[in-house]
């Protein structure tokens, strides 16, 4: 049975699926809208399954606070172009709101969005609609007490976000400045007491060898490295970093003047740690021509 233009339009409005997919769905479902929606969903799951092994290293990060909770998350797509798609952007915000509502990051895929779908199902449907693999890669949540504050910052391109938990009541602007420091300078630790022992040992070995390669006597290398490690620790610890708005003061001193102290921090950058798939455009075109 041929699908009417009115029903195709209604199905498109309800599912956001393409014109030809809606036409086919209605024809396969005897012009029954509800059956057509089910048909499209099944087709979407099949289409999404084909994308399961695709590398999704683009996307967005987002940081948002609500009451005593603050969430940071990364949602991936395969291309930067899709990360700006309105449906993708809405999905990211909906996931953040849902996590804040649940006050947890446990079993994110099973959480129910405002549209009554699980996050996993919504990601599958979005994958089918957009044509790229979409998925929630990671999320973290901070909870504050009445004597603590949040610092949040999201870069204008949504590729980098940061959140900081601060002991003491500081203004939102001060909190944002600290989170901006984390986003831009990417410290590894909050302070020297948190420095990972293995990381420090590895860095010291590298520096000792580098010092020896520079021609310094081996017996003096370790003493020289102690001084150099002090400088490195100042670079990788948030508290010891010079404040980006005033290099004459450290972050710990700046926060102390404002009545605060950094406790925890998290920084997300889109795609960090993901091995991106390199492709050759000419080879892709040739491959398509052979199909």
Descriptive labels:
20% strand; 3-stranded antiparallel beta sheet; alpha+beta; 8 strands; 291 residues
Architecture overview:
There is one protein chain. This protein is an alpha+beta fold and 291 residues long. It has 10 helices and 8 strands. It has helices at 5-15, 19-28, 33-50, 86-102, 119-130, 172-185, 197-213, 218-236, 251-257, 281-290, and strands spanning 58-66, 69-77, 135-143, 148-154, 160-167, 242-243, 246-250, 261-269. The strands form 3 sheets. A 3-stranded antiparallel beta sheet has the order 1-2-3, covered by helices on one side. A hairpin with a 2-residue loop joins strand 1 (58-66) and strand 2 (69-77). The longest helix has 19 residues, at 218-236. The model is unreliable at 284-291 (pLDDT under 50).
Helices and strands, in order, run as HHHEEHHEEEHHHEEHEH
Instruction: Give the terminus-to-terminus CA distance.
Output: 31 Å
Structural class: alpha+beta
Q: Which of globular, elongated, flat, extended, rod-shaped describes the shape?
A: elongated
Strands of the biggest beta sheet: in what spatial order?
Answer: 1-2-3
SS field, number of helical segments = 10
Write down the overall mean pLDDT. 86
Percent of residues in β-strands = 15-25%
Radius of gyration: 25 Å
Number of strands: 8
Amount of helix: 40-55%
Q: Which oligomeric form is depicted?
A: single chain
Unreliable residue stretches: 284-291
Largest sheet: 3 strands, antiparallel
């Amino acid at each position: 049975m041929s699908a009417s233009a009115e029903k195709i339009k209604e199905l498109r409005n309800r599912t956001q699926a393409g014109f030809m997919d809606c036409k086919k769905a209605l024809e396969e479902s005897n012009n029954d809208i509800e059956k057509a929606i089910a048909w499209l969903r099944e087709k979407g799951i099949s289409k999404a399954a084909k994308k399961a092994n695709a590398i999704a290293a683009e996307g967005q990060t987002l940081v948002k606070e609500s009451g005593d909770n603050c969430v940071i998350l990364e949602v991936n797509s395969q291309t930067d172009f899709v990360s700006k798609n309105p449906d993708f952007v809405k999905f990211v915000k909906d996931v953040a709101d849902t996590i804040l509502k649940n006050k947890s990051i446990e079993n994110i895929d099973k959480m129910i969005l405002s549209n009554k779908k699980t996050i996993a199902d919504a990601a599958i449907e979005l994958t089918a609609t957009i044509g790229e693999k979409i998925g929630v890669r990671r999320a973290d949540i901070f909870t504050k007490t009445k004597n603590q504050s949040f610092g949040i910052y999201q870069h204008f391109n949504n590729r980098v976000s940061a959140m900081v938990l601060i002991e003491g009541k500081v203004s939102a602007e001060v909190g944002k400045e600290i989170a901006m420091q984390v986003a831009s300078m990417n410290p590894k630790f909050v302070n020297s007491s948190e420095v990972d022992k293995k990381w420090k040992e590895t860095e010291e070995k590298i520096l000792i060898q580098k010092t020896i390669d520079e021609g310094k006597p081996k017996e003096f290398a370790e003493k020289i490295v102690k001084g150099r490690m002090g400088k490195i620790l100042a670079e990788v610890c948030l508290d010891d970093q010079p404040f980006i708005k005033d290099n004459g003061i450290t972050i710990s001193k700046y926060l102390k003047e404002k009545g605060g102290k950094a406790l925890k921090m998290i920084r997300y950058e889109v795609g960090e740690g993901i091995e991106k798939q390199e492709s050759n455009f000419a080879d892709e075109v040739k491959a398509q021509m052979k199909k």
